[in-house]
Amino acid sequence: MPEPSLDRRRRMIILAICCMSLLLVSLDNTILNVALPAMRKDLHASVPGLQWTIDAYTLVLAALLMLSGSTADRIGRRRVFQTGLVLFTAGSALCSLAPSLGWLVVFRMVQAVGGSMLNPVAMSIITNTFTDPKERARAIGVWGGVVGISMAAGPIIGGALVQFSSWRSVFWINVPIGLAALVLTTRYVPESRAPKPRRVDPVGQLLVIALLGSVTYGIIEGSGAGWTSPLILGCAAVAVCSLGGLLAYERRRVEPLIELRFFRSAPFSGATVIAVNAFAALGGFLFLNTLYLQDTRGLSALDAGLHMLPMAAMALIFAPISGRIVGNRGPRLSLLLAGTAMTASGVLFAGFDAESSNPKLFTAYVLFGIGFGFVNAPITNTAVSGMPREQAGVAAAVASTSRQVGQSLGVAVIGATIAAGLDIAGWWIIAFCGAAVLILGALTTGRWAAGTAERAAAHLISDSPKVPVSTP
Phi and psi of 388, rounded to 5°? Predict the structure, then answer.
């Protein structure tokens, strides 16, 4: 339920607490990427092994986000949020103690279970706390700016920790932040839940896990096992059957895990696909650059982090600007700028050999940072706008799931190009993802798209006539 009685100071504190949870998750990703070469040396890991340290986390996260969002709407958002903080903090401590790559992957999955209860639930808390559309858009801009902070601070902090301690120390930083967020949540965040929450959908949940797991496993292991091997062909068959089963089953279910009616809205569908492409570019960009800077150029972890600072700084600067633009003018301009900048960055790397000189390299980093800074706020705002507030957790979880799916696919696909010795193909994939953001941003934010959103909202309201609907 919305909390209109909260004063501005209390709302700002709640926003800060929610941002701390996002900082936990996003900082963990950027710090870990810088630590990958040190982990590979210490744990004797291959490139696919490094991919699994990232994708084991993002896969579990993506598979459970929608379940966590609907569970929070049902049993209480603060309760689920607190549980997530406990699990993520404990998982981080366990990762720092992992004796082998296998155990590290397992503990990363524990982190992911907790992480699935943080970002979508925090976004639901923000949506129900900031009921004014413009104030909510500004809050989401601040939220997006935290990603920029993590991108700016993560590589430097991670590089310093790896250089002066070990890769295990990159997980220690999560512990004090997680404990502080837990204490503050208990004191300041009010409990809220949906008046009519959805039922659990175990069949849909299993189909989502099978779909995401088979696709990612097939891509990561394909280069080693052979793309036409029975194992990889079996993964493809499981993926196709899971997708078909998911679409057929969810369409017939009264309260599905994935509300397919949301996708009748072109802006919502566009935001979902844009999120996949944008975060595929981000995941691949960080993975590719980390290995390039440290393995090819021979830089230390700290120097590699400093080299990526221009990209992170631009994301930090332009994320809140994007939030203000979305609040005042809608998502179209931010998405067009994001797609243009990300495409230019990929083309500069792939077509103009940006790796050959520092000026080109830093220009490409600046362009990517600008693009990523612009893209986050319109994705989130479009995902939650026009949806019934009782389903805010589910709608936000779909957007968050798309981000994690995209990051998993980016690491898997671009990691496969690295394993095959085709690094240049990775840069072209990033350029393609940027172009997809540009094209979809143009197609799904116009007058026709707005009409589909209105019709989708009207259809949702007709099924729940007494439920208030948020407006863009």
Answer: -55, 135
